[in-house]
Amino acid sequence: MYSRPNSGLMWVLMEIQGQILTALLETGSSRNLLTKIVVDRLGIQLQPCSGEIHDLNGKPTTVDGLLDILVRIGEWSGSCTLLVLPLDNIDCILGMDFFVSNKVTLTPHLGGVLIGEGNNQEWPVRFQIKNGQSDFKG
Questions:
Q1: What are 30-69's pLDDT values in tens digits?
Q2: DSSP sequence for 67-104
Q3: By residue range, what is the domain housing residue 129?
Q4: Chain segment 59-115, per-residue pLDDT in tens
Q5: What is the domain count for the chain?
Q6: How far apart (Å, rounded) are the C-alpha atoms in residues 15 and 72?
């Protein structure tokens, strides 16, 4: 996990088909979301999915499709289901669906995230904040 300086948010670097993305760890989101820009860039085929997602202000956004794909975060890798839609200034949002299905433990006070099942849990990335700047550790 890493922090954008002074953002106050939790981010990880996530890999999909060799492409490194930034993913926001968002406990306020029930679903996992991926921007359509990444899907178009990688030429990934989407599963049909109709519907809308409403943001915090109630504004609806149409879902372009559904993607079940292998992702990697640090040393951990596993399957992830993502709703694909236009997102502003962000590649991916990992929400409660991801946290519950992958037994994720967020530890912002320690600067890390624990991902995995049982004895196979991994600390993929840790960080420390020093004077408002991130000290990245793999």
A1: 999 999 999 999 999 999 888 888 877 788 888 999 999 9
A2: EEEEEEETTEEEEEEEEEE--SS-SEEE-HHHHHHTT-
A3: 11-137
A4: 888 899 999 999 998 888 899 999 999 888 889 999 999 999 988 888 887 777 888
A5: 1
A6: 5
Question: Based on the number of CB atoms within 10 Å of its own CB, is 58 exposed (0-12), middle (13-18) or buried (19 or more)?
Answer: exposed
Query: Does residue 5 fall inside a structural domain?
Result: no
Q: What is the CATH number of the domain that holds 35?
A: 2.40.70.10
Count of beta carbons in the 10 Å neighbourhood of residue 101: 14
Indicate the pLDDT class of residue 117, thresholds 50, 70 and 90: low
Q: Looking at the domain assignment, is residue 51 inside a domain? A: yes
Q: Which residue type sits at 28?
A: G
Contact in structure between 14 and 72 (CB atoms under 8 Å): yes
